[in-house]
Amino acid sequence: MIETEDLGSLLDTLCPMYVLINDEGRIVQVGPTVQKLRPEQPMAGRRFLDVFELQRPRSVTEFPTLLSTPGARLRLRFQDQPQTAFKGLIAPLSGKGASVVNLSFGISILDAVRDYALTSADFSGTDLAIELLYLVEAKSAAMEASRSLNLRLQGAKLAAEEQAYTDTLTGLKNRRAMDHILGHLISTKSSFALMHLDLDFFKSVNDRLGHAAGDFVLQQAAMIMLDETRSDDTVARVGGDEFVLIIKGVTDRKKLDSIARRLIAQLCQPMKFEGAACSVSASVGTALSTQFEMPKAQDVLHAADLALYAAKRNGRSCHRFYCEFSNARQSG
């Protein structure tokens, strides 16, 4: 016959989450894992129902009733905080005047492992909880790797889309981006002004000082245009030395003329490249979306082109508005 001490040692090895209870309902001994959950509260000698709250079966409120239902599946939790939940199974020990309640964490195992810093040594070697923990850990690692990969792919996609809409030399929007923005503004019936700006005498800078100087001038011009416009306006490079500015929500001619004049004044200032002066100017033509009953992108762009040609015919380094009744020859 197995003595109580030998029984406790055997249970420690086979099911470290057991509670050994005598017929009076007092705890005789608990497994090492159960005690680890309350390391500063010895459980031996305490009443079982003072330590654990019985939630299932609901009909059982007294310990003698619990003993009369051997094999019953139990739902329990600690009386004090944290109220860790358990599944349990009670089995009487024949001739010992005692019963064993074998506990497990059930679906709360992950919380228990985290809350009590449990390891594989705290479970029976045959407990499937160990495999479950390994699977959860592997799944978490796989999900983290997948999330990281998705973020990288999303970042690469956004970068590719941004690159597709960006002029690589100046960092401005390109013609594709301009077309997209114009289409959106027109589809939403938003008012806007479209300025077509051309750098005068740019070819002479390229011919005299080389393409590196020309690239420098384009980059400096881009910075000036960004400085003179708002963050929600659009500045796009649509050709070698041609730019389009889309000014959202502004159709007041005085305001627009002031913007164009500031641009021209800034762009007329000589730019120094490797000690050499790069001198250009700018001609600007502006068309308003409100000048069209049903604006189309190509019509607004064509109108701004006509206004630009009028500015160039007027001696360059000036600004003209499109006038639908005089083929853009009249100043705004």
Automatic annotation (TrEMBL):
<dbReference type="InterPro" id="IPR000160">
    <property type="entry name" value="GGDEF_dom"/>
</dbReference>
<dbReference type="InterPro" id="IPR043128">
    <property type="entry name" value="Rev_trsase/Diguanyl_cyclase"/>
</dbReference>
<feature type="domain" description="GGDEF">
    <location>
        <begin position="190"/>
        <end position="324"/>
    </location>
</feature>
<dbReference type="Pfam" id="PF00990">
    <property type="entry name" value="GGDEF"/>
</dbReference>
<dbReference type="InterPro" id="IPR052163">
    <property type="entry name" value="DGC-Regulatory_Protein"/>
</dbReference>
<dbReference type="InterPro" id="IPR029787">
    <property type="entry name" value="Nucleotide_cyclase"/>
</dbReference>
<dbReference type="GO" id="GO:0003824">
    <property type="term" value="F:catalytic activity"/>
</dbReference>
<dbReference type="InterPro" id="IPR042463">
    <property type="entry name" value="HNOB_dom_associated_sf"/>
</dbReference>
<protein>
    <submittedName>
        <fullName>Diguanylate cyclase (GGDEF)-like protein</fullName>
    </submittedName>
</protein>
